[in-house]
Design a protein that fits this description.
By secondary structure, this protein is an alpha/beta fold. The protein has helices at 3-14, 20-31, 77-84, 101-107, 144-151, 154-192, 204-214, 230-239, 261-266, 283-286, 302-314, 340-345, 351-357, 374-388, 401-407, 413-430, 466-481, 491-495, 499-509, and strands at 39-46, 51-58, 69-71, 90-93, 115-124, 127-137, 220-223, 248-252, 291-295, 316-318, 325-327, 331-336, 361-363.
């Protein structure tokens, strides 16, 4: 027998596959051509815990496979620890009945007493790694020749078990990182929105709707002005759902350039466009089995809307430049501050997609409509921002401050309140951290100068009916454009509306339209139009 050939072929079988089970089987099948083998296993001993660990094994079907962790009998502890410190060697056991009692007690746990064993201690770079044990039924089956033959493979087996141990350590660290991520998610939620401020007052109806829909899988649409906290409610929906331990991917549709939105959402294949040097997984693939939060859905381009509709209808995507359909299981939570019905009427958003997304809409009220929550929100932001700024003692609130906060109309909503509190804390620290917390100089009116909606005056004599105010405003725009509705210099452009939308609104308000030729004898003057206006709904505004 050529030892070099044996070594080369056996080594190739040991490293023939990244799958340890496949490699073990191939290796044992090869060794059977040179020695008797019914089974084999790699084992490791932990002297601190007095445990044996079977790292990998090939066990014959007629023997019961032992547990991966084998407690060493107490009477064998001293013998096992002493053996583990000795120099590596080859041990042949052809008759268990003739071995020392510690050996009998240990091996008889998982092997019949009439077995023969060939055991090779494994070490690499002076570090003890474990053992390789070959066994076969019957006594007297192994010879010194078998021992010398298996000793040729000490280094390949030692490298293989070293790789196995490192792989298991990587898996352990990965699981630990996953646990840390889940823990950090919970911590972040506790700091930023796990408990929603106002859940029992101004946001009671919203939080109840979130609780109801969180357990389902249907799409959810969050509607509200900028700064009301739509992302906080998206977090609450995901982390209260059965998908809470799955991916949660957030996408701001308005922050991605139009030319890259398809690639970002759905991924691309290598060579799909200039710069696509490798395949890229999109956000929907990353969110598979979890939730994707599409913030500012109204900013999504029409081409991307078509692809999103396919995800909702067929639950599959196709990468840019690809031909393969990839199934995805994703729950979609979207949010917007826009008037989506108006965008649908003007053709800027697909009607069929809107119906799909608008299955369960949740409207989040602005802060000015739930001013009873302001004291709790201010206290919450003071505590949180103090932690971020490392302020150990919270300052007291200035007299009358809460009245002024509740009198303000809050165009920036909760986000504006958060920023004001943070700025006040910073100014308080600059001033030495002494005295009550003040918001001066701040754009907050005094309670006596404004009503609770921020409208000056104590009566409503200067407030026009909404229909009349809209008529006057449209008349001013038409007067400026000479009655022209369309084009860059038309009234629709000035008012930020689609021309057909403006015409429809003018018709409902009883305003005649059509370009007016201005001359000395006839000029359009702003004022009420002739005719009775028809009724219109607030949803059309």
């Amino acid at each position: 027998m050529d030892k070099n050939t044996f070594f080369r072929q056996a080594t190739l079988s040991i490293f023939s596959s990244l799958n340890i089970e496949t490699a073990k089987k191939r290796c044992m099948d090869y060794l059977k051509g040179y020695m008797p083998v019914s089974g084999m296993f790699f084992a490791l001993y932990d002297p601190e815990l007095n445990l044996g660990r079977i790292l990998a094994s090939n066990w014959p079907f007629y023997l019961q496979k032992p547990d991966d962790t084998v407690p060493v009998p107490r009477k064998s502890w001293h013998w096992m620890k002493e053996k583990w410190t000795q120099a590596p060697r080859i041990t042949i056991i052809n008759d268990l009945d003739k071995e020392e009692p510690p050996v009998q007690r240990l091996l008889s746990i998982f092997l019949p007493t009439d077995s023969s064993l060939l055991i090779m201690d494994l070490a690499l770079d002076g570090k003890r790694l474990g053992i390789l044990c070959l066994f076969v039924e019957g006594k007297g089956r192994y010879t010194e020749f078998h021992g010398k033959l298996i000793s040729l493979l000490h280094e390949p087996f030692a490298i293989a078990i070293s790789n196995l141990l490192q792989h298991q350590e990587i898996l352990r660290l990965r699981d630990m990182v996953s646990d840390d991520n889940r823990y950090l998610h919970r911590q972040i939620l506790e700091m930023t929105g796990d408990t929603i401020i106002g859940a029992d007052f101004g946001l009671k109806e919203v939080t109840e709707a979130v609780r109801q829909v969180a357990l389902l899988n249907n799409p959810v649409l969050l509607v509200g002005e900028t700064g009301v906290g739509k992302e906080v409610f998206a977090n609450a929906i995901h982390y209260s759902s059965p998908r809470q331990n799955k991916p949660f991917i957030k996408v701001n549709c308005g922050a991605i350039p139009e030319g890259l939105i398809d690639s970002e959402l759905f991924g691309h294949e290598k060579g799909a466009f200039t710069g696509a040097i490798s395949r890229k997984r999109g956000r929907f693939e990353r969110a598979h089995t979890g939730t994707i939060f599409l913030d500012e859905i109204g900013d999504l381009p029409l081409a991307a809307q078509v692809r999103l509709l396919r995800v909702l209808q067929q639950h599959e995507i196709e990468r840019v430049g690809g031909t393969e359909s990839i199934p995805v299981d994703v729950r979609i939570v979207s949010a917007t501050h826009r008037n989506m019905e108006e965008m649908v009427r003007s053709g800027r958003f697909r009607e069929d997609l809107w119906f799909r997304l608008n299955v369960f809409p949740i409207t989040i009220p602005p802060l000015r409509h739930r001013k009873e929550d302001i004291p709790a929100l201010a206290a919450h932001f003071m505590e949180r921002k103090s932690r971020e700024l490392k302020i150990h003692s919270l300052p007291a609130l200035d007299r009358g401050l809460l009245d002024r906060l509740q009198a303000y109309h809050w165009p920036g909503n909760v986000r504006e309140l958060e920023n004001l509190v943070e700025r006040a804390l910073i100014q308080n620290q600059i001033a030495g951290g002494e005295g009550p917390l003040r918001l001066d100089p701040m754009p907050l009116p005094s309670f006596t100068d404004t009503d609770r909606f921020g409208v000056h005056g104590e009566d409503n004599r200067d407030i026009l009916p909404l229909d009349q105010a809209m008529r006057n405003h449209i008349h001013k725009a038409l007067a400026r454009t000479g009655g022209k509705v369309e084009g860059k210099d038309g009234a629709a452009h000035i008012l930020g509306l689609h021309p057909s939308t403006l015409r429809g609104r003018m018709k409902r308000l009883g305003i005649a339209y059509g370009k007016v030729k201005q001359n000395k004898s006839r000029k359009m003057k702003p004022g009420p139009a002739m005719g009775l206006p028809t009724k219109y709904s607030l949803s059309a505004l």
